[in-house]
Write a structure and sequence with these properties.
Layout (H helix, E strand, L loop, with lengths): L1 H20 L1 H7 L7 E6 L6 H5 L6 E6 L15 H12 L4 E7 L3 H7 L1 H6 L5 H5 L3 H10 L5 H20 L3 H8 L4 E7 L6 E5 L4 E4 L10
Parallel strand pairs: 1-2, 1-3, 3-4
Antiparallel strand pairs: 4-5, 5-6
């Protein structure tokens, strides 16, 4: 109950401060939305796309799911929720960027790497869902068999972002827009422990710092 009271108090602060001070913005948003970017991120409570990017209301169309995964395109596929959100963002909102936002210490990817844990915890749906990134797990176990479980998990977190980017291109209307330079795809990886954001660089086939980290203050 204390947490709920804190959330309610936070909404009161939003109403009295932010909403009133940004009245013009919300008047504009009440007429519709036109976000420039779709962000597909994890449900993890530690990774807030708006906070990480400093976005205002109306800037991001956000889809969150366990492991920030994108299923491949299949017409008539079951459970079309994620697919329908991508379709709306691309066809109706005409976003110019799609960002797959992964992160370190991801429970979904940990479940993917530790298949037995899914059974032991009696999860009914997680195993099938994270199985969308099985290609990433197979690659890690094949290419990095001697690495520690912690390093394998990091590698799988980043590799799963690439799987999702590849799956995005299986949507014909996403691929068409990418080929016509109407949409740019991005793969980002947030390091929770260091606060660093890495971005996938296709030229080097590696994740590189998105921005230069500010040096720590002296003294």
């Amino acid at each position: 109950m204390k947490d709920i009271a804190r959330f309610i108090a936070g909404f009161e602060r939003f109403q009295t401060r932010y909403f009133r001070e940004e009245r013009g913005l919300f008047d504009q948003l009440s007429q519709g939305q036109r976000p420039p970017a779709l962000v597909i991120s994890c449900c993890d409570s530690r990774v807030d796309p708006a906070m990480l990017t400093g976005a205002d209301p109306g800037d991001l169309f956000v889809v969150r799911n366990v492991g920030n995964l994108v299923p491949p395109y299949r017409h008539g596929a079951e459970a079309p929720g994620i697919r329908s959100a991508i379709e709306f963002a691309v066809k109706s909102l005409e976003v110019e960027h799609i960002i797959i936002l992964g992160h370190s210490s991801c429970g979904g990817i940990r479940a993917l790497m530790d298949g037995e844990g899914i059974t032991q915890n009696h999860y009914e749906f997680i195993g099938q869902w994270v199985g969308l990134a099985k290609r990433a797990r197979d690659w890690v176990l094949r290419e990095l068999p001697d690495k520690s479980p912690a390093l394998q998990a990091i590698a799988c977190e980043q590799a799963s972002i690439l799987v999702s980017l590849d799956n995005l291109l299986s949507f014909p209307w996403v691929r068409e827009r990418v080929e016509n330079n109407l949409i740019t795809l991005h793969g980002w990886y947030f390091e929770i422990d260091t606060g660093e954001m890495l971005a996938y660089d296709p030229e080097t086939a590696s994740f590189q710092p998105l921005v230069q980290t500010m040096p720590s203050p002296v003294g």
